[in-house]
Amino acid sequence: MHFLSIFLVADRYPSAAVQLALNDIAPSPLTLGTLNALALTLVSGIRAIAPALFASLYATGVRNHILSGYFIWVFLVLLAVAAAVAVRWLPEEAQGKLVEDSDEE
Question: Are 34 and 59 in contact (CB under 8 A)?
């Protein structure tokens, strides 16, 4: 039962985080639907490819004794660090509002 709760948390929070990021960076409410569709398409593609990719990486690491069979864990940590760095490139806030400088008048 405990494993199921960890799985549900690990599966749901990234989806909510992506949706919140999309809401913040959408240039306008009109483009939010298109941006959301592109993001969902990308996520679906990743979910289709990731299980085979990570199973192959795990099997290769164990079979060839790469890092004593723990190669996949090093790869996952590097992937998590890369994702944490990529999140810093998101704009602070867009919300479809243009900020006009009032000093130019």
Answer: no
